[in-house]
Amino acid sequence: MSLLGNILWIIFGGGIVLFIEYIAAGITFCCTIIGIPFGIQCIKLGFLAILPFGKEIRNTNPEPSTILTIMNILWICTGGIVIALTHLFFAFLCAITIIGIPFAQQHMKLFNLSFSPFGKEIV
Predict the structure, then answer these.
(1) How far apart are CA 109 and CA 122, in angstroms?
(2) Where are the domains of the chain?
């Protein structure tokens, strides 16, 4: 089921466009030393955006960490809020039709990760 979902996601859900945007942003962030952690998170989001079905997000650190909180705040300030709101908008558009509900669920998964990616892993 996840193979079919991923194929339909790439064709109709915008998976390839999201992948290209995330990878381009990740490479741009990696051009500076300070931006490397943000670039790595963008690339991680890109690989989830191309094949989201069958994957889940887990917290790597169950207790809140100060450095992860600071990194997530910096992420939100450098464009994470725009990415998260974009996924929220596309989730709303996909949820209008019954056929689009699985795509809306994947956009909400990406929304959750794109809002605060530090301290989370994709399994």
Answers:
(1) 11
(2) 2-122
